[in-house]
Predict the 3D structure of the following.
Amino acid sequence: DKTLTLASGTMTRECENVLKKLKGKKGDWCVSRQAELEQLYSVLTGPASPEKENAVRTMQYVPRMTNDSLNYFSSAKKDVYSVYPMPSTMKLRNDQAPGTRKTANISMDAARGESESVSLLVTANTRDLAGVKLDFEPLRDKQGNYIYPEIHPLGYVLVKNPTPSSGGFEIPGYYPDPILPNEPFDVAKDKNVTCLYTVSVPRDAVPGDYKGTITISPQDEKATRLNVSLRVYDVTLLPQSYLRQVFVTRNTAKNSAYYDQWTDEHFRAFTKLHLKYRICCQQQNSEGILDFGSVFSRDSKGRTVADWTRFDADVEYWFRLGMTQFCGFFTGFADSVDAIGDKDYLRTRLGLLASHLKDRGWLDRFYLYFYDEPSPDKQDKIIELCDWVHREGPGLRIIHTYNYLEQEPFIGHADVIVADIDVFKPETGEKIRDNNGEYWAYTCISNRVFAYPDNWKIDNYGTSHRALGWWLFRYKAQGYLYWGTDYWAVDPWENPETFPYGNGDGSLFYPSRDRTTLPYPSLRLDNYRDGVEEYDLLTMLEDKYKADPFEVLKIKKPVVDRKGYLAEDDTYVRLHREILQLLEKPAGKRR
C-alpha cells in the first residue's frame, strides 16, 4: 500500500519493480497515471542536467500509484464500463486510468460570475461501447432557482514527438484536448474518453446550494447516474479580469483549407468565444472588432479628422463582455522611425487617438504592439521609435516584449514591458511600476524544456495551465501576453506540433470538423480560465484582508515558486474552495 513519491530513497528500484510486474499483463493500460511513472523513471535514471532539475521540481508533489488504487481499479474492470469523476486538470491519455476511487457524487464550488469544471472518465472494460450519450438535469436550489451546466466529450490528438521530460510527459500517445459538441461517441475496449462538465454561474445567481445530475448512457447498457452538488458563494467575479491580457489571433479560419466561408460575423463570435475562457484576443489594430477605418477621414480643407461615435460604442460593448485591452492604431510592424512609411499619416492619427483616449479615460486600456523580441543591435533604434511615438501621441502605451535582451534600458521608453517567463525578474517589475509602467509575462516555444507553468503544452499536466494564474499573481505580473490562438500552419487535428516539441504552441483552438461552426476550444483553455479566475480571487482576497493571500490561506506547500509549480490536482480544488469561504466571511474573520 505504499505510495510512490520522490521522498522515497528507493524510488528508482520501486519504479523498476512496478514496471516489470506490469509488463505483458493484460490491460496494462489501466496503470494509474502511467505517464507520470514512466516519466519519473526516465528522470531518475537520466544524466544530471538543468532540465532534470526542472522536471524534479515539477513532479515532486504529484501523488504516485498506490497498490490500493490499482487493486480497486482491477476489481472495477469486471463491469462493462466505469465512470470516474476527476479534477478537470487531470489529463489522461486514452489508454490510462485515474488512481482514484469511483464515486457517484460530485461536489463543486463557485463564485457568481465564475465557471468551474470537472472531468468524467468513461472507460470501456469488457467490450466496446457504442453511442454513449451525455445528459444532465439543471442544477436547482430549494427555492426553484436553477443554473444550466454544459457537458462535452473531449477529442484526442496524437502527440508523435512529445515534450521533453523537463517540460512535459515525454510520452507519445493520444491526449485529450478538443472540446467537442455534445454528440454520442464510441469507446473502444480498454480505452477511455474524457468528458468535461462545466457550470458557468450567472452574476445574478442566488447564493446557496444547488443539486443536479449527470447521466451517461451507452447504447444497450445500463445508464450511470451521478449526483452533482454546487455551492454558489456570495462572491462575485466581474466581467473584466484584474489580469490584463494580449492574446493574438491570426484569423486563420479565413483559410479555405479550414472553412468554406468565414465572415466578419464569424470572427466576432469567435472573439466572444475567447472571452468565455477569460481571454482577450485581437488582431493588429483590433481589426474585426474595432473599425479604425470608419474613424479617420479628411474634411473639406484636406485635414484629417476623426468621428469616434461607432468606435466608442464598440469599445463599450466589448468592455461589457469582459475585454480588458485593445490594440491601438499603427501602420504595421516597425523597429525604427525610418521603418515608418508615411510619418505624417501616422503622426496625425496617433495624436487624435491619444487625445480621445485621454478624454475617455481609456489610455491604460489601449496599447501599441508594433515590434516583437528585438535583437540587441536594435535597442537604440527601438528606444528612438518609442520616444517618437510618445511625442506624437502623448500617453499612448507601447508594449515591449523581450526574452534575453536586457530590459532595464527600456524603462521609461516602453510602457508595458513583457518578459518571457524564463527571464521574468520581480525586482525589475518594481522599477518598472515606479516609472508608471506595467510588467507582464509571456510564454512560448522557448519554454518547452522548462517546468514553468504555461497555457499551451498538450502533453503536460493540466495544473501547469491553472498554476499560471497563481504564478502571475505571486510575482506581481500585471498582465499576460500570448502570441497565438489559431496558428494552424498545419492541421492541428493531424499534427498538433506547431514547432519542434511544441505540441499546442500557438494553437489553443481547433477548426471545427463541419467547416461551418466556430472552432472548438481546448481543455487547456478551460484549465487556463480557472487560473485567471483564481488570479482575480487572490486579488480580492488580498484587498479584503490587507495581507498576502498565501499567508491568509496558510499554504504549507508552495503552489508556485520562481521556476515551477505544484502539479497536484486536488490541491487547487481545495484552495479554490478555501478562497471562496474566506471571501464570503465578514471582514476580519479568517477562520
